Batch of 4 targets.
Target 1
Amino acid sequence: MKKKTFSIALCIVLGLIQVQAENGKSGPRSTPSEKSVPVVHNILSNKLPIKLLTTIKKNYSSYWITSLYKETANGKISYHITVENPDQIIKLSASHPAANWTIRHVVPKDQAAS
């Protein structure tokens, strides 16, 4: 009788652990307000939303792209790009679906090397 009761209790506990794991909870201290870790993916320029890509082609045609990535955090998508020319490096960001680039940082090339 004791073996049977122990086996049933063990099955119930293991079932509860599996349900918690499938729901994405790491334990009893998890709360719904915990923020997820951002997921970052390098992307090619042709994977940008068309409005963002058009703005880059129009306003930064004399620049080349040295870095481009997509960041997803808490269901929100943002894009980050670095463009440069012989004189300066410009870092821009945009949140999707706003699709407007915001200049985060501009560095003249002579300062970037030091």
Target 2
Amino acid sequence: MATITDVAAAAGVSKATVSRVLSGRALAIVAPETAARVRRAAEELGYQANPVAAALATGRTGIVALWMRKLHQAFFASMIQHASESVRAAGYELIVEHGHAEFARPSFRPHRPQFPVDGLIAHEPPGVEGMEQGADWPDVPVVAITERRCEGIDTVRIDLLAGAQQAMDHLLDRGRRRIAYLGGPTYEGHPVLDRERAYLSALRRIGEEPWHVATTGDHYRGGHEAALELLRAPQVPDAIFCHNDEVALGAVRAALDLGMRVPEDVAIVGCDDIEAGQYSEPPITTIHVPVEAVMEHAWRLLSRRIEDPQRPVTTIQVPTRLIVRRSS
């Protein structure tokens, strides 16, 4: 099997140059024609990089992790796809760590040994409220993606408040007053998210009481079950604002199952703008979250932090907006 030494000899360059080119990093100091010559030599010789050897030699693995609490929903699948595209375009590889995995030690395991990743993009990581980074935090660069406010760490903050305010104004402008909110479980100390904050603020403005219904989960079944219970009650809402599009699609199914019309009898609004919502009947009014931009920003912050661990902490706020479709 060809080695870096073999490739360096064939291309007429140093082993350090070969390492830079084939790792995809620090290419700014390598002339394009030199990089092309190295790649051509590596291909002709059948060179394959060994990630374990590279990690030992350079102190980097060329791998970053995307840590997520959930993987099964369309919104999160979209995040994974766009994260992979951003990371691989820069010459890195991406692994996905499920939320059940230990947050403090994200890693890849090419064989039996365990090696740390070079950095971590974390969606709503534990301890994001107040950002108290203790022993349970990774010792690699971390970028958080969150809709909460946080300090002390590079963050891409999804501004769902503006989109949620647009959603509530949209419903109120159309004369809806008995507006329910289908969200997750409530409990003492439960953080009020921007969607719920906009909902409560709008109802206070018109003097209506909040109508929060906890779902069994933020997925289709949870929305369907909660909406069935809600729409079978003696007093029925004329609009439902849902935590996400999957809950909204479940709520639409519940309304149709009960012989109700959407939006004539009950208007329904979701959040995230997943593709399925565009093709449902009726199509779902939703808050658009620009996932591609979110992941591009996250990778840009992480790559800069990997190269310069001492750089100032940065927060990038990504706006959201309402897309009106026939469900409302």
Target 3
Amino acid sequence: MFFIATFMDHALGVAAICADDRLKAVAHPSAAEGQARRAGARAELALILLRRGQLEQNSVVVTEGLRLCDQLGMQALAGSILDRPPHPMHRSVPGGLTQREVEVLRLLSQGRTNRQIAEELVLSERTVANHLGAILAKTGADNRAGAATFALRHGLA
């Protein structure tokens, strides 16, 4: 049963990356990592760590994955994973928006209020307001509707 659950979380994480759903793209690999650690599935854990480390741009996680790959003789596989071009989630964003600003902009584009955005992203409403100010300045939008239009035009919504 463990292998099915780990495989599914790993696969769902990869699917979330492809769908550009950052929240799920982080949650599923983290769940798969925990399952792999509990079961002692070192090969699966190594691959999960490499992918998660790449996604989060976390060199500590990548280093742990590489260490496991070295111990298991999986250096070529590790190299092929790390040599892939950056995923679209890491592409440059129009307007110079940060990843967090893109997350806020996506939720804004869905018609969410500052309070709803704050709750979903686990931020204060003040922080959301600060992000919105930066989004408006960077996109040249005058209001939330203008920012949402920017998001739609640039494939960020």
Target 4
Amino acid sequence: MRRLARVLLSSVLLSAAFAQNPPSGGAPQSEPAVIKLPPPLYPPMALAAFVYGQVELNITLRQDGTVDSAEAVSGPPMLRAGAAESAKQTQFECNGCTAGTTQFRIVYRYELTEPFYCEPADKSYPRVSQSAGIITITGQPAGTCDPSATRAGAAKCLFLWKCGWR
């Protein structure tokens, strides 16, 4: 009786192990690779509101590497439309894609650097980079600036209505 139980148990375990392993006959499909990223787009309203985070997109790709559709499935609402628009302009290389379209997921990560205050904005922002299925867009928000603090003679101005008169 114990032998029968062992044989049944081992056959169940072996069949479960074979069911979990993919068949070795087919070649594994690789994720499409990014060939060309569009100019970075950080939505201006999200940048002004200091909104950052990750947006996950469902991408439907044609055989030629162009995007058929891009739909945001998660992430901050202020960033979703910008990520989808950026993905639609991205050029992919679709190795091993089947006839018709291929679907996959990609993540757009929006990050912020230290804001600029009274000095001019750094023209190199927003910046874009790509690594392992994650496209990172870095923006530099504008901080609040008190121009009177940088003006010469501001310490002498105790009566605000006289500050502008000279």
